[in-house]
Amino acid sequence: xxxxxxxxxxxxxxRRGLVFYTKIYFKIIAxxxxxxxxxxxxxxxxxxxxxATNIAGFIAFIIMFGKFPSINGWSYYxxxxxxxxxxISITPTxxxxxxxxxxxxYVYDGDFVKYCFRPINVWFYYVSEVFDVKGLGQLVFGIxxxxxxxxxxxxxxEFLLIMKIIVAxxxxxxxxxxxxxxxxxxxxxxxNSFWLLDISLKMKDYAKYPIxxxxxxxxxxxxxxxxVAFMAYYPSLVILRPDNVPVLTWLSPVLGxxxxxxxxxxxxxxxxxxxxxxx
Amino acid sequence: MKxxxxxxxxxxxxxxxxxxQWRLALFVMILGNLLYLTLIYFxxxxxxxxxxxxxxxxxxxxxxxxxxxxxTSLYGVVELYIVxxxxxxxxxxxxxxxxxxxxxxxxxxxxxxxxVLVVNFLVTFIPTFVIVVIMTKGTIPLGWNLLYFILAFVFxxxxxxxxxxxxxxxxxxxxxxxxxxxxxxxxxxxxxxATIPLAFFPEKFVAVVKYLPFKAIYDxxxxxxxxxxxxxxxxISKLGFSLFWMIAISAFSGFFWRIxxxxxxVNGG
Lengths: 279, 269
What we know:
The complex is a heterodimer. In chain A, 73% of the residues lie in helices and 1% in strands. Chain A is mainly alpha-helical. Chain A has one domain (39-273). In chain A, helix 3 (40-65) runs parallel beside helix 8 (135-152) and helix 9 runs antiparallel to helix 12 (233-240). The longest helix of chain A is centred in the middle third of the chain and has 27 residues, at 159-185. The radius of gyration of chain A is 21 Å and the shape is globular. Chain B has one domain (2-50, 60-263). Chain B has eleven helices and two strands. Chain B has helices at 2-21, 23-51, 61-78, 82-92, 95-100, 105-136, 144-170, 178-191, 203-209, 219-226, 232-263; strands at residues 55-56, 59-60. A two-stranded antiparallel ribbon of chain B has the order 1-2. In chain B, helix 1 crosses helix 6 (105-136), helix 4 (82-92) runs parallel beside helix 7 (144-170) and helix 7 (144-170) packs parallel to helix 11 (232-263). The longest helix of chain B is centred in the middle third of the chain and has 32 residues, at 105-136. Chain B starts with a helix and ends in a 6-residue tail after the last helix. The A-B interface holds A 36, 39, 41-42, 45-46, 48-50, 52-53, 56-57, 59-60, 63-65, 67-68, 70-72, 98, 101, 132, 134, 190-192, 194-196, 198-199, 202, 205-206, 209, 213-215, 218, 226 and B 22, 24-25, 28-29, 31-32, 35-36, 38-39, 42-43, 45-47, 49-51, 170, 173-176, 178-180, 182-183, 186-187, 190, 195-196, 200-202, 205.
């Protein structure tokens, strides 16, 4: 009899698929959002913060590009398109993986151990603990910029194009999440990995410019070593340059999944190596 | 007075030793700066080549690059992540211990971080400056302007620190540090001319920005550094502007902290 229950619970663990994790995810973030809502001043200040940040970003954009009809063969609205695109594709990283910013501290202080004792995936449990609502503010600005540029560029609104842009956005998001996740995971091996995370955050600022402004050496680096070009440029070519789509663009969804999976494996490897040092 | 300074410099020394413990962080920071400089080099090159003109808004490509390279390295010196530190200390309760120290909290945080500032200045700004001077041969004059720069830079450090401290004080009222810190970084970087030289701003925008304290952080020291033989009037008005804002903003940050700390309870410890 005991044996049977043992088998059953074993099967139950195996059956923990997408449905199980989705359910749990919403339960965990509901707690997080409830706790955040109790700090109303904080929510208001953060919202003002995200709006002000984005307005400052747009002012900088207009100052730099507004005076020139085109930069390096890219029109003003095409660059705006890339800008909006990059703002949208950073949103999943910001909303879903925000807790990665605290990982370094949890590992350093030894509090990370609490995540290792749950009967669910450690990475999943860790990142689901925090959902950054403010990130959605960025999404609004990003969609606004993208739609505006879309209209100004007179791109037709067709079903196939909408599907393409969605796939492109998901691809770019995967690359951004992969980079941030890997940078956060570095804290399992090196101390003070804050700088790596900070650099990974700044990469999103690099992503919003066409890769063609760089020379060959840096084009190579930003494509194959630091995947900045995949965070907006290559995926958005399906819309901006439909007649001349490079192979890398077609490959990018697969590469995005691979990069994300790689970063996840790295994170899990670090977590399994973690020995609970600290106080 | 002497004792007071000794107390402060002891904190500076500790900071210097601590910074050299994090050699890897220093290396990664320099790497990050190099990447950023690469980006702005190619970006501005593209902008200048599409303008079809050697001079855009009164600045040549070379001047723009010198300005931005030096602004970036100064940014690396004065950005001490004070808001993060204060915010974290509020959240974990460590601030209670710091408040008990026989030194004003504002001064303690500054001097505690001054070591990092010194190391960053020696390790990032000085080498960058030397390389720029050698590579551009004459874009930066070597004369009295160096002295004006140092003075303006000292004001800049104090102004920047006090802005950070004010934003850190806001963290007493909120739980999040991230949002506030990002906002501060973006606004200061834009309005101070750290990311785009103020010469490129539209006139109406500059009309407002030129009265704000932010420009004293990067624009004023760098303009004084790069101007050959500025008139006395220019030097005095620029330094006077920085000095005025330094005093005003220090007074305000102290006042804001005093009224804020009374109203706030801190959890943990």
